[in-house]
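Figure 6 in text form: structure in, sequence out.
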């Protein structure tokens, strides 16, 4: 499995979970690459859960959010659940403001 400067992959010992860690600024410039890379990794694996760690994402724009929704939808079509874990403050706020909390397994805006 390949990794880019923005994405690092790790497999779990449970045989069920593939973990991806994103870092840096996710915006229009990188969104297509992130979408394509995560979708390909999810669909090529035998894992049933893709956890995307977004703790090191410092900025996320609407285009990148759309890319993550595309990953989630493509993975769901292959029977894979996608969750975002450890959201950084900018990611959590963007997810909550857009109403995507439930889609990614995060708490709603309070």
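Output sequence:
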């Amino acid at each position: 499995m390949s990794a880019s400067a923005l994405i690092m992959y790790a497999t779990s010992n449970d045989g069920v979970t593939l973990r991806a860690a994103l870092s840096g600024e996710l915006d229009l410039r990188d969104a297509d690459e992130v979408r394509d890379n995560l979708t390909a990794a999810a669909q090529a694996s035998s894992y049933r859960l893709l956890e995307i760690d977004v703790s090191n994402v410092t900025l996320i724009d609407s285009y990148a959010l759309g890319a993550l929704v595309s990953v989630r939808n493509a993975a769901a079509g292959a029977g894979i659940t996608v969750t975002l874990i450890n959201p950084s403050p900018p990611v959590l706020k963007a997810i909550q403001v857009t109403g995507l909390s439930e889609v990614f397994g995060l708490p709603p805006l309070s």
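Caption detail: Residues 71 and 81 are 10 Å apart (CA to CA).
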